[in-house]
Protein backbone atom coordinates (compact mmCIF):
# COMPACT_ATOMS: atom_id res chain seq x y z
CA UNK A 1 0.00 0.00 0.00
CA UNK A 2 1.38 3.42 -0.96
CA UNK A 3 0.94 6.13 1.68
CA UNK A 4 -0.21 9.66 0.97
CA UNK A 5 3.21 11.31 1.06
CA UNK A 6 4.83 8.69 -1.20
CA UNK A 7 2.03 9.05 -3.75
CA UNK A 8 2.24 12.84 -3.59
CA UNK A 9 6.02 12.72 -3.87
CA UNK A 10 5.79 10.61 -7.03
CA UNK A 11 3.79 13.27 -8.87
CA UNK A 12 5.45 15.66 -11.29
CA UNK A 13 5.30 19.31 -10.23
CA UNK A 14 3.89 20.33 -13.61
CA UNK A 15 2.35 18.13 -16.30
CA UNK A 16 2.42 19.09 -19.96
CA UNK A 17 0.75 17.20 -22.78
CA UNK A 18 1.96 13.63 -23.37
CA UNK A 19 2.82 13.46 -27.09
CA UNK A 20 5.07 10.97 -28.91
CA UNK A 21 5.82 9.21 -25.60
CA UNK A 22 7.20 12.39 -24.04
CA UNK A 23 5.79 15.08 -21.79
CA UNK A 24 5.95 18.48 -23.45
CA UNK A 25 6.93 21.38 -21.21
CA UNK A 26 3.74 23.08 -20.07
CA UNK A 27 3.08 26.53 -21.48
CA UNK A 28 2.45 29.46 -19.14
CA UNK A 29 -1.24 28.56 -18.95
CA UNK A 30 -1.87 25.90 -16.33
CA UNK A 31 -4.63 24.88 -13.94
CA UNK A 32 -4.13 23.31 -10.50
CA UNK A 33 -4.96 19.74 -9.48
CA UNK A 34 -6.48 20.14 -6.03
CA UNK A 35 -7.07 17.24 -3.60
CA UNK A 36 -10.86 16.92 -3.34
CA UNK A 37 -10.92 16.27 0.42
CA UNK A 38 -7.95 18.11 1.90
CA UNK A 39 -7.81 20.97 -0.60
CA UNK A 40 -4.05 20.51 -0.97
CA UNK A 41 -2.38 21.60 -4.16
CA UNK A 42 -1.16 18.40 -5.85
CA UNK A 43 0.33 19.61 -9.15
CA UNK A 44 -0.14 22.04 -12.01
CA UNK A 45 -1.45 20.86 -15.35
CA UNK A 46 -1.04 22.47 -18.76
CA UNK A 47 -4.19 24.14 -20.01
CA UNK A 48 -3.66 22.88 -23.55
CA UNK A 49 -5.36 24.21 -26.63
CA UNK A 50 -5.44 23.74 -30.39
CA UNK A 51 -1.62 23.94 -30.75
CA UNK A 52 -1.11 20.84 -28.56
CA UNK A 53 -4.05 19.07 -30.24
CA UNK A 54 -2.45 19.75 -33.65
CA UNK A 55 0.83 18.22 -32.43
CA UNK A 56 -0.83 15.24 -30.76
CA UNK A 57 -3.01 14.47 -33.78
CA UNK A 58 0.03 14.81 -36.10
CA UNK A 59 1.92 12.36 -33.87
CA UNK A 60 -1.00 9.89 -33.81
CA UNK A 61 -1.41 10.22 -37.59
CA UNK A 62 2.29 9.56 -38.19
CA UNK A 63 2.22 6.50 -35.90
CA UNK A 64 -0.92 5.04 -37.49
CA UNK A 65 0.46 3.22 -40.60
CA UNK A 66 3.09 1.27 -38.65
CA UNK A 67 0.70 0.51 -35.78
CA UNK A 68 -2.01 -0.67 -38.17
CA UNK A 69 0.52 -2.87 -39.99
CA UNK A 70 1.39 -4.83 -36.84
CA UNK A 71 -0.20 -8.23 -36.46
CA UNK A 72 -2.72 -8.45 -33.59
CA UNK A 73 -0.27 -10.50 -31.52
CA UNK A 74 2.16 -7.56 -31.53
CA UNK A 75 -0.51 -5.07 -30.52
CA UNK A 76 -1.70 -7.49 -27.84
CA UNK A 77 1.83 -7.69 -26.43
CA UNK A 78 1.87 -3.90 -25.92
CA UNK A 79 -1.53 -3.98 -24.19
CA UNK A 80 -0.41 -6.77 -21.88
CA UNK A 81 2.80 -4.88 -21.11
CA UNK A 82 0.76 -1.84 -20.13
CA UNK A 83 -1.49 -4.03 -17.95
CA UNK A 84 1.63 -5.42 -16.21
CA UNK A 85 2.95 -1.89 -15.61
CA UNK A 86 -0.39 -0.73 -14.12
CA UNK A 87 -0.44 -3.76 -11.82
CA UNK A 88 3.07 -2.86 -10.67
CA UNK A 89 2.03 0.76 -9.99
CA UNK A 90 -1.57 0.16 -8.88
CA UNK A 91 -1.05 0.97 -5.19
CA UNK A 92 0.40 4.38 -6.11
CA UNK A 93 -2.15 5.12 -8.86
CA UNK A 94 -5.14 4.29 -6.65
CA UNK A 95 -3.85 6.65 -3.94
CA UNK A 96 -3.38 9.39 -6.58
CA UNK A 97 -7.00 8.94 -7.71
CA UNK A 98 -8.23 8.93 -4.12
CA UNK A 99 -6.45 12.22 -3.42
CA UNK A 100 -7.52 13.78 -6.71
CA UNK A 101 -11.23 12.85 -6.69
CA UNK A 102 -12.10 11.99 -3.08
CA UNK A 103 -13.28 8.39 -3.58
CA UNK A 104 -12.21 5.74 -1.07
CA UNK A 105 -9.07 3.69 -1.70
CA UNK A 106 -11.12 0.52 -1.66
CA UNK A 107 -12.98 1.81 -4.73
CA UNK A 108 -10.07 3.31 -6.66
CA UNK A 109 -8.30 -0.03 -6.18
CA UNK A 110 -11.25 -1.74 -7.88
CA UNK A 111 -11.01 0.83 -10.70
CA UNK A 112 -7.43 -0.16 -11.44
CA UNK A 113 -8.27 -3.88 -11.29
CA UNK A 114 -11.05 -3.33 -13.84
CA UNK A 115 -8.71 -1.20 -15.97
CA UNK A 116 -6.08 -3.96 -16.04
CA UNK A 117 -8.78 -6.46 -17.00
CA UNK A 118 -9.80 -4.17 -19.88
CA UNK A 119 -6.29 -3.97 -21.33
CA UNK A 120 -5.92 -7.75 -21.05
CA UNK A 121 -9.41 -8.43 -22.40
CA UNK A 122 -8.77 -6.38 -25.55
CA UNK A 123 -5.29 -7.88 -25.94
CA UNK A 124 -7.06 -11.24 -26.22
CA UNK A 125 -9.99 -9.90 -28.24
CA UNK A 126 -7.63 -8.43 -30.86
CA UNK A 127 -6.57 -11.98 -31.76
CA UNK A 128 -10.12 -13.03 -32.55
CA UNK A 129 -11.38 -9.88 -34.23
CA UNK A 130 -12.08 -11.46 -37.56
CA UNK A 131 -13.70 -10.40 -40.77
CA UNK A 132 -15.52 -12.93 -42.94
CA UNK A 133 -15.47 -14.30 -46.44
CA UNK A 134 -17.22 -16.51 -48.97
CA UNK A 135 -16.80 -17.97 -52.40
CA UNK A 136 -18.07 -16.01 -55.40
CA UNK A 137 -18.08 -17.04 -59.09
CA UNK A 138 -14.42 -17.33 -60.14
CA UNK A 139 -13.11 -16.18 -56.84
CA UNK A 140 -13.55 -15.18 -53.27
CA UNK A 141 -14.90 -12.27 -51.24
CA UNK A 142 -13.00 -11.12 -48.16
CA UNK A 143 -14.59 -8.64 -45.77
CA UNK A 144 -11.87 -7.32 -43.54
CA UNK A 145 -12.01 -4.95 -40.61
CA UNK A 146 -9.84 -1.84 -40.86
CA UNK A 147 -9.13 0.72 -38.16
CA UNK A 148 -10.34 4.29 -38.69
CA UNK A 149 -7.05 6.05 -37.96
CA UNK A 150 -6.75 8.72 -35.28
CA UNK A 151 -9.42 8.46 -32.55
CA UNK A 152 -10.27 11.53 -30.48
CA UNK A 153 -11.45 10.38 -27.05
CA UNK A 154 -12.84 12.41 -24.14
CA UNK A 155 -13.50 11.07 -20.62
CA UNK A 156 -15.11 12.28 -17.36
CA UNK A 157 -13.75 12.39 -13.81
CA UNK A 158 -15.70 9.81 -11.83
CA UNK A 159 -13.69 6.64 -12.54
CA UNK A 160 -10.63 7.92 -14.43
CA UNK A 161 -8.68 4.64 -14.64
CA UNK A 162 -11.68 2.70 -15.95
CA UNK A 163 -12.63 5.45 -18.36
CA UNK A 164 -9.12 5.66 -19.84
CA UNK A 165 -9.04 1.87 -20.25
CA UNK A 166 -12.55 1.75 -21.80
CA UNK A 167 -11.35 4.18 -24.46
CA UNK A 168 -7.72 3.30 -25.10
CA UNK A 169 -7.84 -0.52 -24.98
CA UNK A 170 -10.36 -1.28 -27.79
CA UNK A 171 -9.14 1.58 -30.00
CA UNK A 172 -5.51 0.52 -30.10
CA UNK A 173 -6.34 -3.21 -30.08
CA UNK A 174 -8.22 -2.62 -33.33
CA UNK A 175 -5.20 -0.83 -34.85
CA UNK A 176 -6.14 2.83 -34.31
CA UNK A 177 -4.03 5.48 -32.66
CA UNK A 178 -5.39 7.76 -29.95
CA UNK A 179 -5.50 11.31 -28.65
CA UNK A 180 -7.18 11.19 -25.24
CA UNK A 181 -8.43 14.17 -23.23
CA UNK A 182 -8.83 13.49 -19.49
CA UNK A 183 -11.23 15.49 -17.33
CA UNK A 184 -9.89 18.68 -15.74
CA UNK A 185 -11.05 17.41 -12.30
CA UNK A 186 -9.22 14.10 -12.58
CA UNK A 187 -6.22 14.26 -14.91
CA UNK A 188 -3.44 13.04 -12.64
CA UNK A 189 -3.69 9.25 -12.86
CA UNK A 190 -4.27 9.46 -16.62
CA UNK A 191 -1.17 11.63 -17.05
CA UNK A 192 0.76 9.20 -14.83
CA UNK A 193 -0.51 6.46 -17.15
CA UNK A 194 1.47 8.28 -19.86
CA UNK A 195 4.68 7.29 -18.08
CA UNK A 196 3.62 3.63 -18.29
CA UNK A 197 2.48 3.97 -21.90
CA UNK A 198 5.98 5.24 -22.77
CA UNK A 199 7.45 1.92 -21.61
CA UNK A 200 4.78 -0.22 -23.32
CA UNK A 201 3.83 1.33 -26.68
CA UNK A 202 5.67 2.85 -29.67
CA UNK A 203 5.71 6.68 -29.70
CA UNK A 204 2.59 8.39 -30.99
CA UNK A 205 0.18 5.47 -30.60
CA UNK A 206 -1.40 6.93 -27.43
CA UNK A 207 -1.25 10.66 -26.71
CA UNK A 208 -2.83 12.47 -23.74
CA UNK A 209 -3.72 16.15 -23.90
CA UNK A 210 -5.12 17.71 -20.71
CA UNK A 211 -7.11 20.92 -20.47
CA UNK A 212 -10.59 22.36 -20.28
CA UNK A 213 -13.49 20.83 -22.17
CA UNK A 214 -14.58 23.86 -24.10
CA UNK A 215 -10.97 24.59 -25.15
CA UNK A 216 -8.98 21.45 -25.76
CA UNK A 217 -12.02 19.13 -25.98
CA UNK A 218 -13.61 21.30 -28.63
CA UNK A 219 -10.30 21.53 -30.57
CA UNK A 220 -10.02 17.73 -30.54
CA UNK A 221 -13.56 17.09 -31.77
CA UNK A 222 -13.17 19.66 -34.58
CA UNK A 223 -9.76 18.48 -35.82
CA UNK A 224 -9.93 17.44 -39.51
CA UNK A 225 -7.52 14.51 -39.07
CA UNK A 226 -9.49 12.87 -36.26
CA UNK A 227 -11.51 10.16 -37.97
CA UNK A 228 -13.46 8.69 -35.04
CA UNK A 229 -14.79 10.31 -31.86
CA UNK A 230 -15.60 8.56 -28.59
CA UNK A 231 -17.01 10.44 -25.62
CA UNK A 232 -18.08 9.62 -22.07
CA UNK A 233 -19.76 12.29 -19.98
CA UNK A 234 -23.00 14.17 -19.65
CA UNK A 235 -25.78 13.95 -22.23
CA UNK A 236 -25.51 17.73 -22.69
CA UNK A 237 -21.85 17.64 -23.77
CA UNK A 238 -22.53 14.40 -25.64
CA UNK A 239 -24.83 16.38 -27.91
CA UNK A 240 -22.08 18.94 -28.60
CA UNK A 241 -19.58 16.19 -29.44
CA UNK A 242 -22.16 14.46 -31.62
CA UNK A 243 -22.73 17.67 -33.58
CA UNK A 244 -18.97 18.13 -34.03
CA UNK A 245 -18.86 14.61 -35.49
CA UNK A 246 -21.87 15.28 -37.69
CA UNK A 247 -20.22 18.43 -39.08
CA UNK A 248 -17.30 16.38 -40.33
CA UNK A 249 -19.27 13.15 -40.93
CA UNK A 250 -17.11 11.03 -38.64
CA UNK A 251 -18.54 8.25 -36.46
CA UNK A 252 -19.23 9.13 -32.81
CA UNK A 253 -19.78 6.73 -29.92
CA UNK A 254 -21.28 8.10 -26.72
CA UNK A 255 -21.55 6.84 -23.13
CA UNK A 256 -23.76 9.30 -21.28
CA UNK A 257 -25.82 9.76 -18.13
CA UNK A 258 -28.25 7.50 -16.31
CA UNK A 259 -31.12 7.41 -13.81
CA UNK A 260 -31.44 3.70 -13.44
CA UNK A 261 -34.36 1.78 -11.90
CA UNK A 262 -33.66 -0.94 -9.35
CA UNK A 263 -36.81 -3.00 -8.80
CA UNK A 264 -37.68 -5.25 -5.86
CA UNK A 265 -40.56 -7.70 -6.37
CA UNK A 266 -42.70 -9.00 -3.49
CA UNK A 267 -41.75 -12.64 -4.13
CA UNK A 268 -38.13 -12.29 -3.00
CA UNK A 269 -37.04 -14.85 -0.43
CA UNK A 270 -37.41 -13.28 3.06
CA UNK A 271 -33.99 -14.69 3.99
CA UNK A 272 -32.48 -12.68 1.10
CA UNK A 273 -33.91 -9.32 2.14
CA UNK A 274 -30.83 -8.17 4.07
CA UNK A 275 -28.60 -8.98 1.09
CA UNK A 276 -30.96 -7.16 -1.27
CA UNK A 277 -30.96 -4.16 1.06
CA UNK A 278 -27.16 -4.24 0.95
CA UNK A 279 -27.18 -4.58 -2.87
CA UNK A 280 -29.52 -1.64 -3.34
CA UNK A 281 -27.52 0.48 -0.87
CA UNK A 282 -24.35 -0.34 -2.82
CA UNK A 283 -26.09 0.36 -6.15
CA UNK A 284 -26.92 3.90 -5.03
CA UNK A 285 -23.89 4.82 -2.91
CA UNK A 286 -20.94 3.19 -4.66
CA UNK A 287 -18.62 5.78 -6.19
CA UNK A 288 -20.11 8.30 -3.71
CA UNK A 289 -23.20 8.09 -5.93
CA UNK A 290 -21.16 9.62 -8.78
CA UNK A 291 -21.71 6.74 -11.17
CA UNK A 292 -23.60 6.82 -14.45
CA UNK A 293 -24.78 3.27 -13.65
CA UNK A 294 -26.02 4.02 -10.13
CA UNK A 295 -29.38 2.50 -9.20
CA UNK A 296 -30.84 5.84 -8.13
CA UNK A 297 -34.55 5.00 -8.46
CA UNK A 298 -35.45 2.15 -6.13
CA UNK A 299 -38.92 0.70 -6.85
CA UNK A 300 -40.14 -1.21 -3.77
CA UNK A 301 -43.34 -3.25 -3.85
CA UNK A 302 -46.05 -2.27 -1.40
CA UNK A 303 -46.05 -5.70 0.30
CA UNK A 304 -42.44 -5.43 1.45
CA UNK A 305 -42.13 -1.65 1.52
CA UNK A 306 -42.22 -0.81 5.24
CA UNK A 307 -39.91 -3.60 6.39
CA UNK A 308 -37.49 -2.92 3.52
CA UNK A 309 -37.39 0.81 4.22
CA UNK A 310 -36.59 0.21 7.88
CA UNK A 311 -33.67 -2.03 6.97
CA UNK A 312 -32.56 0.30 4.15
CA UNK A 313 -32.31 3.37 6.39
CA UNK A 314 -30.41 1.29 8.96
CA UNK A 315 -28.06 0.08 6.24
CA UNK A 316 -27.46 3.66 5.04
CA UNK A 317 -26.68 4.87 8.53
CA UNK A 318 -23.99 2.18 8.91
CA UNK A 319 -21.95 3.59 5.98
CA UNK A 320 -18.82 5.40 7.15
CA UNK A 321 -18.57 8.94 5.79
CA UNK A 322 -14.90 9.63 6.23
CA UNK A 323 -11.46 10.56 4.90
CA UNK A 324 -11.18 8.78 1.54
CA UNK A 325 -7.58 7.74 2.27
CA UNK A 326 -8.95 5.44 5.02
CA UNK A 327 -9.23 1.75 4.29
CA UNK A 328 -12.35 -0.30 3.64
CA UNK A 329 -15.73 0.59 2.16
CA UNK A 330 -16.69 4.20 2.84
CA UNK A 331 -18.40 7.25 1.42
CA UNK A 332 -15.86 9.90 0.49
CA UNK A 333 -16.45 13.41 -0.78
CA UNK A 334 -17.74 14.89 -4.00
CA UNK A 335 -15.11 15.57 -6.65
CA UNK A 336 -15.31 19.36 -6.38
CA UNK A 337 -17.09 22.25 -4.77
CA UNK A 338 -19.15 22.64 -7.97
CA UNK A 339 -20.35 19.03 -7.71
CA UNK A 340 -20.94 19.46 -3.96
CA UNK A 341 -23.13 22.51 -4.54
CA UNK A 342 -25.04 20.63 -7.25
CA UNK A 343 -25.78 17.73 -4.87
CA UNK A 344 -26.73 20.17 -2.08
CA UNK A 345 -29.21 21.90 -4.40
CA UNK A 346 -30.90 18.58 -5.25
CA UNK A 347 -31.11 17.66 -1.55
CA UNK A 348 -32.80 21.03 -0.97
CA UNK A 349 -35.23 20.31 -3.83
CA UNK A 350 -35.92 16.85 -2.39
CA UNK A 351 -36.69 18.30 1.03
CA UNK A 352 -39.43 20.40 -0.59
CA UNK A 353 -40.82 17.89 -3.11
CA UNK A 354 -40.43 14.56 -1.29
CA UNK A 355 -40.21 12.96 2.13
CA UNK A 356 -36.72 12.62 3.63
CA UNK A 357 -36.23 9.11 5.05
CA UNK A 358 -32.61 9.44 6.17
CA UNK A 359 -29.55 11.65 5.71
CA UNK A 360 -29.89 14.99 4.01
CA UNK A 361 -27.01 16.84 5.66
CA UNK A 362 -23.47 17.80 4.86
CA UNK A 363 -20.81 16.15 7.04
CA UNK A 364 -17.60 17.72 8.36
CA UNK A 365 -14.66 15.30 8.29
CA UNK A 366 -11.55 16.04 10.36
CA UNK A 367 -8.53 16.84 8.19
CA UNK A 368 -10.69 17.15 5.07
CA UNK A 369 -11.78 20.77 5.32
CA UNK A 370 -12.25 21.24 1.55
CA UNK A 371 -14.36 18.12 1.00
CA UNK A 372 -18.06 18.16 0.25
CA UNK A 373 -19.17 15.10 2.24
CA UNK A 374 -22.83 14.15 2.56
CA UNK A 375 -24.75 11.65 4.63
CA UNK A 376 -26.18 8.85 2.50
CA UNK A 377 -29.53 10.40 1.67
CA UNK A 378 -32.81 8.63 0.91
CA UNK A 379 -36.08 10.25 -0.15
CA UNK A 380 -39.49 8.60 -0.48
CA UNK A 381 -41.06 10.05 -3.57
CA UNK A 382 -42.88 9.43 -6.84
CA UNK A 383 -41.39 8.97 -10.28
CA UNK A 384 -42.38 12.41 -11.54
CA UNK A 385 -40.35 14.55 -9.12
CA UNK A 386 -37.14 16.28 -10.16
CA UNK A 387 -35.02 14.17 -7.78
CA UNK A 388 -36.45 11.03 -9.43
CA UNK A 389 -36.01 12.28 -12.98
CA UNK A 390 -32.71 14.20 -13.05
CA UNK A 391 -29.23 12.79 -12.70
CA UNK A 392 -27.90 14.10 -9.36
CA UNK A 393 -24.53 12.30 -9.37
CA UNK A 394 -24.26 12.16 -5.59
CA UNK A 395 -25.28 9.93 -2.65
CA UNK A 396 -29.01 10.54 -3.04
CA UNK A 397 -31.53 7.72 -3.57
CA UNK A 398 -35.17 8.11 -4.58
CA UNK A 399 -37.45 5.32 -3.33
CA UNK A 400 -40.74 4.81 -5.17
CA UNK A 401 -43.56 2.57 -3.89
CA UNK A 402 -45.31 0.35 -6.45
CA UNK A 403 -48.10 -2.21 -6.56
CA UNK A 404 -49.29 -2.36 -10.18
CA UNK A 405 -46.94 -4.17 -12.60
CA UNK A 406 -47.94 -2.26 -15.74
CA UNK A 407 -47.54 1.06 -13.91
CA UNK A 408 -44.14 -0.11 -12.63
CA UNK A 409 -42.91 -0.85 -16.15
CA UNK A 410 -44.27 2.48 -17.36
CA UNK A 411 -42.55 4.40 -14.54
CA UNK A 412 -39.27 2.48 -14.75
CA UNK A 413 -39.05 3.43 -18.43
CA UNK A 414 -40.48 6.91 -18.00
CA UNK A 415 -37.16 8.77 -17.86
CA UNK A 416 -34.89 10.24 -20.54
CA UNK A 417 -32.08 7.80 -19.79
CA UNK A 418 -31.69 4.05 -20.38
CA UNK A 419 -28.32 2.91 -19.10
CA UNK A 420 -28.74 0.25 -16.42
CA UNK A 421 -31.42 -1.48 -14.33
CA UNK A 422 -31.76 -4.08 -11.60
CA UNK A 423 -34.45 -6.65 -10.79
CA UNK A 424 -34.79 -8.70 -7.60
CA UNK A 425 -37.20 -11.62 -7.87
CA UNK A 426 -37.37 -15.38 -7.37
CA UNK A 427 -39.70 -15.81 -10.33
CA UNK A 428 -37.90 -16.64 -13.57
CA UNK A 429 -40.81 -15.59 -15.77
CA UNK A 430 -41.13 -12.23 -14.02
CA UNK A 431 -37.37 -11.72 -14.32
CA UNK A 432 -37.28 -12.59 -18.00
CA UNK A 433 -40.41 -10.66 -19.03
CA UNK A 434 -39.32 -7.60 -17.07
CA UNK A 435 -35.79 -7.65 -18.49
CA UNK A 436 -37.39 -7.76 -21.94
CA UNK A 437 -39.51 -4.68 -21.26
CA UNK A 438 -36.94 -2.46 -19.54
CA UNK A 439 -35.44 0.15 -21.83
CA UNK A 440 -31.86 -0.14 -20.61
CA UNK A 441 -28.54 -1.32 -21.99
CA UNK A 442 -27.90 -3.39 -18.88
CA UNK A 443 -30.33 -5.49 -16.85
CA UNK A 444 -28.91 -7.10 -13.73
CA UNK A 445 -31.09 -9.83 -12.21
CA UNK A 446 -30.51 -10.47 -8.51
CA UNK A 447 -27.30 -8.42 -8.60
CA UNK A 448 -26.12 -4.92 -9.47
CA UNK A 449 -22.91 -3.40 -10.89
CA UNK A 450 -21.85 -6.75 -12.29
CA UNK A 451 -19.15 -5.71 -14.75
CA UNK A 452 -17.59 -8.91 -15.97
CA UNK A 453 -15.15 -8.11 -18.79
CA UNK A 454 -16.91 -8.81 -22.07
CA UNK A 455 -20.33 -7.71 -20.82
CA UNK A 456 -21.63 -5.01 -23.21
CA UNK A 457 -21.81 -1.58 -21.60
CA UNK A 458 -23.90 1.00 -23.39
CA UNK A 459 -27.04 3.03 -23.11
CA UNK A 460 -30.48 3.19 -24.69
CA UNK A 461 -32.26 6.52 -25.26
CA UNK A 462 -30.27 9.54 -24.05
CA UNK A 463 -27.71 7.33 -22.30
CA UNK A 464 -25.63 6.84 -25.39
CA UNK A 465 -24.79 5.26 -28.71
CA UNK A 466 -22.64 2.14 -28.98
CA UNK A 467 -21.34 -0.47 -26.56
CA UNK A 468 -18.02 -0.59 -24.76
CA UNK A 469 -16.38 -3.27 -22.62
CA UNK A 470 -17.09 -6.13 -25.05
CA UNK A 471 -15.87 -7.79 -28.24
CA UNK A 472 -18.45 -5.84 -30.24
CA UNK A 473 -16.59 -2.63 -29.27
CA UNK A 474 -13.87 -3.57 -31.75
CA UNK A 475 -16.45 -3.20 -34.53
CA UNK A 476 -17.14 0.32 -33.27
CA UNK A 477 -13.47 1.14 -33.83
CA UNK A 478 -13.23 -0.34 -37.34
CA UNK A 479 -14.96 -0.15 -40.67
CA UNK A 480 -15.55 -3.05 -43.03
CA UNK A 481 -13.74 -3.25 -46.33
CA UNK A 482 -14.87 -5.75 -48.97
CA UNK A 483 -12.18 -7.16 -51.25
CA UNK A 484 -13.26 -9.45 -54.07
CA UNK A 485 -10.68 -11.57 -55.82
CA UNK A 486 -11.26 -13.34 -59.13
CA UNK A 487 -8.91 -15.86 -60.65
CA UNK A 488 -10.11 -14.91 -64.13
CA UNK A 489 -10.95 -11.58 -65.71
CA UNK A 490 -14.61 -11.46 -66.80
CA UNK A 491 -15.20 -12.06 -70.51
CA UNK A 492 -15.98 -8.93 -72.56
CA UNK A 493 -19.61 -7.77 -72.29
CA UNK A 494 -19.66 -4.08 -73.19
CA UNK A 495 -18.67 -2.14 -76.31
CA UNK A 496 -16.45 -4.92 -77.72
P1 LIG B 1 -19.11 16.49 -18.70
O1 LIG B 1 -19.93 16.13 -19.86
O2 LIG B 1 -19.25 17.83 -18.12
O3 LIG B 1 -17.55 16.33 -19.04
C1 LIG B 1 -17.04 15.14 -19.63
C2 LIG B 1 -15.81 15.48 -20.45
O4 LIG B 1 -16.19 16.33 -21.53
C3 LIG B 1 -14.73 16.23 -19.68
O5 LIG B 1 -13.46 15.73 -20.07
C4 LIG B 1 -14.90 17.66 -20.16
O6 LIG B 1 -13.72 18.41 -20.09
C5 LIG B 1 -15.31 17.44 -21.59
N1 LIG B 1 -16.02 18.57 -22.21
C6 LIG B 1 -16.78 19.51 -21.61
N2 LIG B 1 -17.24 20.40 -22.52
C7 LIG B 1 -16.77 19.99 -23.73
C8 LIG B 1 -16.92 20.49 -25.06
N3 LIG B 1 -17.62 21.56 -25.35
N4 LIG B 1 -16.31 19.81 -26.07
C9 LIG B 1 -15.60 18.69 -25.80
N5 LIG B 1 -15.42 18.20 -24.57
C10 LIG B 1 -16.00 18.83 -23.54
O7 LIG B 1 -19.41 15.35 -17.64
P2 LIG B 1 -18.79 15.21 -16.19
O8 LIG B 1 -19.45 16.15 -15.28
O9 LIG B 1 -17.32 15.23 -16.27
O10 LIG B 1 -19.20 13.68 -15.85
C11 LIG B 1 -20.44 13.36 -15.37
C12 LIG B 1 -21.32 12.80 -16.47
O11 LIG B 1 -20.69 11.74 -17.14
C13 LIG B 1 -22.60 12.23 -15.91
O12 LIG B 1 -23.69 12.61 -16.69
C14 LIG B 1 -22.37 10.74 -16.00
O13 LIG B 1 -23.53 9.98 -16.03
C15 LIG B 1 -21.57 10.62 -17.23
N6 LIG B 1 -20.82 9.37 -17.26
C16 LIG B 1 -21.23 8.38 -18.11
C17 LIG B 1 -20.57 7.16 -18.14
C18 LIG B 1 -21.01 6.08 -19.08
O14 LIG B 1 -20.22 5.21 -19.37
N7 LIG B 1 -22.24 6.11 -19.58
C19 LIG B 1 -19.48 6.95 -17.31
C20 LIG B 1 -19.08 7.95 -16.44
C21 LIG B 1 -19.76 9.17 -16.43
Description:
The model has no long low-confidence stretch (mean pLDDT 97). The chain has helices spanning 4-10, 50-69, 72-101, 105-127, 160-173, 188-198, 213-222, 235-248, 273-285, 302-317, 337-353, 386-389, 405-413, 428-437, 473-476, and strands at 14-15, 18-19, 22-23, 30-34, 41-46, 132-136, 139-147, 150-154, 177-181, 206-208, 228-232, 252-255, 261-264, 297-301, 355-358, 362-363, 373-374, 377-381, 396-402, 417-418, 422-424, 444-445, 460-461, 464-465, 478-486. The protein folds into 2 domains: 4-256 and 463-481, 3-Layer(aba) Sandwich (Aldehyde Dehydrogenase, Chain A, domain 1), CATH 3.40.605; 261-445, Aldehyde Dehydrogenase, Chain A, domain 2 (3-Layer(aba) Sandwich). It is built from 15 helices and 25 strands. A 7-stranded mixed beta sheet has the order 15-18-19-14-13-21-22, sandwiched between helices. The protein has a 6-stranded mixed beta sheet with strand order 10-9-8-11-12-24, with helices on both faces. It has a 3-stranded mixed beta sheet with strand order 1-5-4, with no helix packed on it. It is an alpha/beta fold and 496 residues long. Bound molecules: nicotinamide-adenine-dinucleotide. The site of nicotinamide-adenine-dinucleotide has 29 residues, from helix 7 and helix 8.
Amino acid sequence: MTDVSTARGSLSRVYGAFIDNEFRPASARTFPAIAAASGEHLADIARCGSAEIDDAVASAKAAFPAWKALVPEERAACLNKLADAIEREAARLMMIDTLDIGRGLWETGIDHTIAVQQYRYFAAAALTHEGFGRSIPNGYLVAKREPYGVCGQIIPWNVPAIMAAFKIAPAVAAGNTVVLKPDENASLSTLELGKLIAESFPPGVINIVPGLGEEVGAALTAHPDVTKLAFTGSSEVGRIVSLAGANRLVPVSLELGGKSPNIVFPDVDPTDIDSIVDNTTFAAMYCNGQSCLAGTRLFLHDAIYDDFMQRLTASMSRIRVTDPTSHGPLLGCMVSEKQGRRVQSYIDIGKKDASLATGGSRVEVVGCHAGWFFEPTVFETTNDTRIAQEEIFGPVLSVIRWNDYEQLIHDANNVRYGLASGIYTNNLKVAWDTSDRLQAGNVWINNYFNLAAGSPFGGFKESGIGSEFCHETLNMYTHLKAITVQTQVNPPWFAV
